[in-house]
Specification:
CATH class of the largest domain: Mainly Beta
Order of helices and strands: HEEEEEEEEHEEE
Structural class: alpha+beta
Distance between the termini: 63 Å
Length: 162
């Protein structure tokens, strides 16, 4: 390769790297600030076959409200379940799905001492809400999604953000 071709290749690689880096940073920023309004029409609310809890370490963290908890549908394994933290504004009654992540929770398995022979270890879920996006009082739900249906599990917990 001659010198001109090398310089042109370097410029193209630099532009490509800058573009990919900017896309990654923008995607990260968007994911962290994303709260999706949830349409609750046709959404099933949980019955007595569900158990759930919100952890005590839930609370403020830098510019975010961090929520972690768990949900189990008795009689079903949690290995193929998707879960999200959902907030319901107590004034407007609008549901918001938070960016969420799944967690293994052997501590929940040990505490519940379930003897049903079903693997519930992947029952944990966590999520964050950007403080600039939440004002007021919110009730915390866990959206429990299987291939059959989506169910909102009421955790019985609320928090207020001024």
């Amino acid at each position: 390769m001659n010198r001109k071709t090398q310089v042109l290749c370097m410029i193209c690689m630099t532009i490509l790297m800058l573009f990919l880096g900017a896309t990654y940073v923008e995607g990260y920023k968007t994911a962290r600030s994303y709260m999706r309004s949830l349409n609750d029409e046709g959404m099933k609310f949980s019955d007595n076959d569900y158990m759930s809890g919100i952890d005590e370490n839930t609370g403020w963290w830098e510019d975010y409200y961090k929520i972690s908890g768990w949900a189990i549908h008795v009689g079903d394994s949690s290995t193929d379940v998707k879960m999200h933290i959902v907030l319901r504004d107590t004034d407007s009654k609008i549901f918001y799905e938070l960016p969420s992540y799944l967690q293994s929770r052997n501590d929940v398995m040990d505490a519940l001492n379930l003897k049903d022979g079903i693997d519930h270890s992947k029952c944990g879920v966590g999520g964050t809400a950007r403080l600039s996006q939440i004002h007021g009082t919110y009730h915390i739900y866990i959206l429990y999604q299987t291939s059959k249906e989506d169910t909102l599990v009421d955790t019985g917990k609320e928090f207020t953000c001024e």
